[in-house]
Amino acid sequence: MEPFVTLTGVAAPLDRANIDTDAIIPKQFLKRIERTGFGQFLFYEWRFTIEGDKIDSFILHQPQYEDASILLARNNFGCGSSREHAPWALLDFGFRCIIAPSFADIFYNNCFKNGILPIRLSEEQVDELFKRTESTPGYQLTVDLERQVVEDNQGLSYSFEVDEYRRYCLLNGLDDIGITLQQEDKIAAYEAARATK
Amino acid sequence: MKPRTLFEKIWDHHVIYEEAGKPSLLYIDLHLVHEVTSPQAFEGLRLAGRKVRRPDLTFATMDHNVPTADRFNITDPISRTQMETLTTNCKDFDVPLADLNSPDQGIVHVIGPELGLTHPGKTIVCGDSHTSTHGAFGALAFGIGTSEVEHVLATQCLQQSKPKTMEVRVNGPLPLGVSAKDLILAIIAKFGTDFATGYVLEYTGEAIRNLSMEERMTVCNMSIEAGARAGLIAPDETTFTYLQGRRHVPQGEAFDQAVATWKELQSDEGATYDTYVEIEATEIEPQVTWGTSPGMGTGINSLVPNPDSYANATDQTSVRNALAYMGLTAGTPMTDITIDRVFIGSCTNGRIEDLRKAAAVAKGRKVSPIVHAMVVPGSQAVKERAEAEGLHHIFTEAGFEWRESGCSMCLAMNPDILSPGERCASTSNRNFEGRQGRDGRTHLVSPEMAVAAAVAGKFVDVREWLKEPVSM
Q: Do A100 and A75 form a contact (C-beta atoms < 8 A)?
C-alpha cells in the first residue's frame, strides 16, 4: 500500500448527502476479478447517459476538476454495500482523500486499507470548503496527515481527528495481514484454549 | 463482576490480544464467502504465498450473479468467470462451497442460519453488508471489505476497534398486519440512515420478543441501513427451537450444553449501553418508501412529503432530488402510486415465513394485468419447502413467476433487472438510485404489502384485506 503523508491537489465538490456505494460503483461493474481498472466506472450513472455518452455537466467532467485528487461531499458518504470496489474506483480515478461531515463505517474502514484518507470535518467547515471550491477557480487544498490539518493558501486551516493507529499505518503504508501474523503465537494459543473447552 | 451487555460478552470472549492505542485482535468463528467480494482476496493470498488458516470455519456459496430463471445458463461471460473463479478458489484453498448443483445453495444470509452455521455468541463476518442478519441469533455479525476478507482468510482474525453500543427499545406489541419489515423501515424512517453509525445495536422490548426467528432476521438484516456496525437480539427459546436439529448445530446432550451456554448471552441486569432510542410498536403502520434512501419512507396512509417541509438545506435538496428521480409529486397519497413490477425475495424477505405470508395474501387473488410480479426463494431449501407446501401453486395461479434461488432483483447483478422508469414494489433492502436497474424506481415494502400492490396495481393498506376473506 502506498503511504499517505501529505497531499496537495484540486478539491472537487460533489454536493450530495448519502452518496451510496451503488452510486460510487454500480453493480454491473462488480463482476471483474481484479482490483484494478475500476476508475472508468466511478459514478458511472452520473457520468454517462444510458447510451454511454459523457454527461459534460457532471462535476467531475468539468475541466477545472479533471485533475482533482480530493473529493468533497456531504454527510453519510459511502453508505450501503460493503463493496471495496468503491474505494478501488475512487483511487483508480485519482482520489486519495475524501472530506465529508460523516462516513458510513465499512466504507471508512475500506479507505484506510487502500491508502485513501477519509477526513471528517464539521458541517460548517465542509460548507466553507464547498463555498471556496465553487468560488475560486483552481482551488487547491493541502492535506497533511502528519500534522492532521487541511489547509489552503488563503489562510484556512482545519485540524481533523483520525485514529492514531490508522494514521500510523497510513503514514507508513503498512499491510495489516503482516502485522497480525506477528501475533501468530497468540492466535494459535487462543485456538488451542478454545479447542479444549 | 461489572454487569455487561450482550455485545460486551461476545466481544470479550473473542479478543485475542489488546494493546492500548491499537485496535483489538478479534477471533472470527465463521467466515461466509460469496463470489463478488472474494476473488481479489484469494488472489492476494496467492501472491503472498498464504493459505486459508481455517477452511473448516469458512463456508462459500454463489448468489449475487445467479440467474433465477434458467440458473445453469449464465449468458454473461463476466458473471460466469466470477462464479468459476469462486469454484477454483474454493478447490485450491479447501473451502467448502455450496455451488449451483448443491441443494444447500442460496443467498449467503439465508443459508447460514438454515444450515445451522449461525449460532448465538459467534463472531461472524462476510464480505457483504447484510451480514448483520445473523445478529438475530445473538451473534456478533458484520460486513467487511475485500481486504478484510483476505485478512480473515489468512489469519482467522480481524483488527477491530471496539464499537459503541445502543439499545433500540421497541415498546408494546406490533399491531395486526404490521410486519417486522414495517418495524425496521419505521425505525430507519424515524431515526435516519446514519443514526447508528459507529454502534452495535441491541433490539429489545416486547415487540422484539414476540417476533419469530425469521422476523428477527429481517430486523437485524436492515441494521446496516441505519448505519450500524451490527444488530443484535438476545437468544431465547425461539432461537433454540429454531436451531435444534439443524445440520451444523450440536445434537443430543451437546445441544443441551450449548443451550445452557447460549442462555448466558443476555445483557446483564444493570448493564449500560452508550445510548438508546425507543419507538412505540403500536403506532407503526405498514410502511412504503417514497425516496432513494431507506430512511425516506412513511406509513401507507401518508402523503409523499414536501421538500420545503424539511428544516435544513441539505435535506431539502436530497428530498427534491429523490422525488425527481422517483417521478413523484409532493402531496400525492401513497395509495395513489401505481406500480409496474413486484419483487418478493432477497436476504431481507426471501425466507419460508415470508413466502407463507405472501401466499396467504395472494391466495385466490390475481396479479393486476399492468404488473409483472415474481417470487424468488432465498435458497434452494426454501424453494423445496415452499413447493412441498404448495405455495408455488398459489403464486403461479395468482400470476406470479416462481423462480430459482438467488439475490435476483435486490441488486440486479443478474438478468433480473428493472428497465428505465419502471416502478417496483420490492421486499428487498435498498432503494438507492439505480440499485435495481438504471433509472429504475424502488419502493421498499413487506411481502404482504408487495402482494397487495401486485394485485391492486398500486399501493394499498394490506390490513384492509386481512379483515375480509377473499371471495372466490
A: yes
Strands (E), B45-94: 58-61
Buried b (16+ CB within 10 A) or exposed e, B298-311: bbbeebbbebeeee
Residue A95's identity, in one-letter code, is F
Q: How many CA atoms lie within 13 A of A177 on its CB side?
A: 22
Tell whether A83 lies on the interface with B, counting CB pairs under 8 A: yes
Nearest by CB to residue A165, choosing from B23, B50, B227, is B23
Going along chain A from its start, the domains and CATH numbers come out as 6-195 (3.20.19.10)
Per-domain residue ranges of chain B: 6-275, 287-466
The SS3 of residue B98 is: strand
- Report domain B6-275's class: alpha beta
Q: Position of cell 434452494? A: B380
Question: Closest to A20 (Cβ–Cβ): which among B25, B148, B432?
Answer: B432
> Does the distance separating the beta carbons of B40 and A33 come in below 8 Å?
yes
Q: How far apart are CA A29 and CA A121, in angstroms?
A: 31
Q: Which fold has domain B287-466?
A: Aconitase; domain 3 (3.30.499)
d(CA A75, CA A88): 21
pLDDT along chain B (472 residues), means of 10: 96 95 96 97 95 98 95 92 97 98 98 98 98 98 98 98 97 96 98 97 98 98 98 98 98 98 98 98 98 98 97 94 98 98 98 98 98 98 98 98 96 93 98 96 98 98 81 46
DSSP string, B269-330: TT---SEEEEEEGGG---EEE-SSSTT-EEETTSBPPPGGGSSSHHHHHHHHHHHHHHT--T
